[in-house]
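Protocol step 4 of 5: obtain the predicted structure for the target chain.
Materials: sequence only (see below). No template structures provided, no constraints applied. The aim of this step is simply to have a reference model before the mutagenesis design in step 5. Sequence pasted as it appears in the construct record:
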Amino acid sequence: MNNLIYLDNAATTKLHTAVLDEMLPYFSENFSNPAGIYASARKSKAAIEKARAQVAAVIGATPNEIYFTSGGSESDNWAIKGVADALKTKGNHIITTKIEHHAILHTCEYLEKCGYEVTYLNVDENGVVKLDELKAAIRPTTVLISVMFANNEIGTIQPIAEIGRIAKEHGVLFHTDAVQAFGHVPMNVEDMNIDLLSASAHKFHGPKGVGFLYIRKGVKIQTYLHGGAQERGRRGSTHNVPGIIGMGKAAELAVENLVENSHKMSKLRDYLMAQIQTKIPFAKLNGHPVKRLPNNVNFCFRFIEGESLLIMLDSVGICASSGSACTSGSLDPSHVLLAIGLPHEIAHGSLRLTLSEETTKEELDYVIEKLSAIVERLRSMSPLYEDFVKEN
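Step 4 output (structure tokens):
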């Protein structure tokens, strides 16, 4: 077994060796700016267009509906701000949920300061959007619904096709943040009536610093990044050629192996969840028990602090997290866990373990052994747990 057991794949994934091999020539040999008209520039441009087609194929889009960005956060910002600005004469109302990534929530909060109105939908105890509340929230002034495909913390997969159908029936654009889901679960923008979709390469074994926004043909959206004619005039800035090529290759590999990888990780995920529930008392599974990402396991352990748990896991070679990588420095409990109804004192004891296709059962057995011992040790030092035991 390796000295390091990496179970934080929701934060980032290891770059696939085949992806690196595809990228390397474009750092030194074929380094030309694709905006040039000479032969080497045309080679870079052709490689970018190949990557565009590779990405589009995963979601059932056409290549000219894919726009390259710096990652998921930029894609989310562009989708929300771009649509809001383009359709401001039609309406000023946006619908999203209370469990979105902060790239969505903070963007919506910014727009509220600019005069827009935002409805933040509740979710049930498993983190699933309530479709009746979604329908009731739609107004004549609603221009956009944004609901993430799968939650980055608790792994719950939303009823995306149903949400897309509701949006289409009401003539409202539908955006989904698919950063955690792309390459891990099947998706098709036509079948699901998705108008805009965000993704980021480093979540599916591609490089960091590159992502894309799918924009359905005909959707009105303002340019987000000005400065050049790149991306058909919609997103200025010199192309990150190696990154884009790497993302294209990673997308191709992801869809080729999606069924096999999903089956393997789901089996290991269910094994890990069952072992934790069996061997560690007062452990609560967060997220939908079935409709969840194949690699996501999220628990809260009563009477302990998640930060202490992570530090002690790290000391025995286990990399994990308590929630979103983008809020790892916050002392506040997860907004996602609070939204599914957990009290603060329980939400503080959260642990997210996210697998990859390289994760083994032997590694998980080691994790379960160490996790059980660490939880027991931390509880032995907790006056709250001591009082609980005395009272019960």
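Step 4 remarks: The chain has 14 helices and twelve strands. The mean pLDDT is 95.
Proceed to step 5.
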